[in-house]
TrEMBL record:
Location of the HTH tetR-type domain: 20-79
Keyword flag DNA-binding: yes
Record key words, sorted: DNA-binding, Transcription, Transcription regulation
GO MF, any single term: transcription cis-regulatory region binding
Gene3D superfamilies: Tetracycline Repressor, domain 2
Official protein name in the record: TetR family transcriptional regulator
Start-end of DNA-binding region: 42-61
């Protein structure tokens, strides 16, 4: 999408910014439709949500798999970008960590259908899983470190282990209406507090 050559010219950067914004609108619409209707939702529903024609979606994402992968990456990016913003805007690092974990849980619970389509036997699964880890583990580690430095949580907590634990607590949340993953994860996060 980006040629990265640093070319000059007034129209080109503006066009790229518009293209990025349009793609973000499509991905946000697709994510919202996937949450309510599943990843097999008709493309016309996504197009209607985004306020574009179906041809626009196919121009950006020729196959459903392309769209699903792009939505998944988009949601990972949003979660990753939220970490530093929460750290800057929250009253304490632990509050930022807690709010970020809430976003992470939302991502895990509402995007489980996406992950289900991208099974380990899918050629792109390993790459996508590596992207997920590369983007989110450092953000979680930064939040954990800030909370530990502020004396709010125990030092030496491992971001990957915490994320894996949160992920395991989210399993089944989409199939059992009596199970509230967010409440159980809240107990886990409360347990990180320094006594």
């Amino acid at each position: 999408m980006s040629d990265g050559d640093g070319s000059t010219g007034g129209a080109s950067p503006r066009k790229r910014a518009d293209a990025v914004r349009n793609e973000k609108t499509l991905l946000d619409a697709a994510a919202a439709v996937f949450v309510t209707s599943g990843v097999e939702a008709p493309v016309r529903d996504i197009a209607a949500k985004a306020g574009v024609g179906t041809g626009t979606i196919y121009r950006h994402f020729p196959t459903r798999a392309d769209l699903i992968i792009a939505v998944y990456r988009h949601q990972v990016d949003a979660c990753a970008e939220a970490g530093p913003a929460l750290l800057a805007s929250s009253p304490t690092p632990h509050a930022a960590l807690r709010r970020w974990i809430d976003l992470f849980v939302d991502f895990l619970v509402t995007k489980r259908g996406l992950a289900g389509v991208l099974q380990p036997d899918n050629a792109g699964f390993d790459t996508l899983h590596a992207y997920f880890l590369d983007r989110l583990v450092p953000v979680c580690a930064r939040l954990l470190d800030a909370a530990a430095q502020a004396g709010e949580t125990r030092p030496g907590l491992d971001a990957y282990e915490l994320m894996r634990g949160v992920g395991n607590l989210c399993i089944g949340a989409d199939t059992d209406p009596r199970y509230d993953a967010r409440r159980v994860v809240e107990l886990l996060i409360a347990g990180l507090r320094r006594q």
